[in-house]
Design goal:
Elements lengths: L1 H21 L21 E8 L2 E9 L2 H11 L6 E7 L3 E8 L2 E10 L2 E9 L14
Antiparallel strand pairs: 1-2, 2-6, 3-4, 4-5, 5-6
Length: 136
């Protein structure tokens, strides 16, 4: 009888220890600074990643790079995004915008009749210059 109680107690302790070790704290929620950034109709989401300090979204948009760039140049400022830098050539457009203390880089690359658009937003400091954007 004692052996049975001992084995049952040992089994219960092992089960409790296993159940406790499987519990991991939930990761903190990631900010979603890009939630209200508009996408051109029929854009396809390619990738989304992030940390508590940064968010990165990549889409493939229909249309040539000049049309896609014009869309973001005209749509974002009325939404509170201030254009800080706008550099482009025939195959690449790089926009840098700020809204409050949140900086955002938009890198666009011509992909034939479509445009690959990469958005990156980070936790910024009000009045402080953000780190350099993603390498080209």
């Amino acid at each position: 009888m004692r052996t049975r109680a001992f084995i049952f107690g040992l089994l219960a302790a092992a089960t409790a220890a296993c159940a406790q070790s499987d519990r991991k704290p939930a990761p903190p929620p990631r900010p979603n600074w890009l939630l209200d950034v508009p996408y051109i109709a029929q854009s396809v989401l390619e990738d989304t990643t992030g940390t508590p300090d940064a968010q990165h979204v990549v889409i493939l948009s229909p249309g040539p790079i000049d049309s896609v760039a014009a869309f973001y140049r005209t749509r974002l400022p009325p939404m509170g995004w201030r254009m800080v830098s706008d550099m482009s050539d025939s195959v690449h457009v790089s926009l840098y915008l700020e809204r409050g203390s949140v900086p955002m880089w938009i890198q666009m690359d011509a992909q034939g009749p479509q445009t690959r658009v990469a958005f990156t937003a980070t936790a910024g400091q009000s009045g402080a210059r953000p780190p350099a954007g993603p390498p080209r």
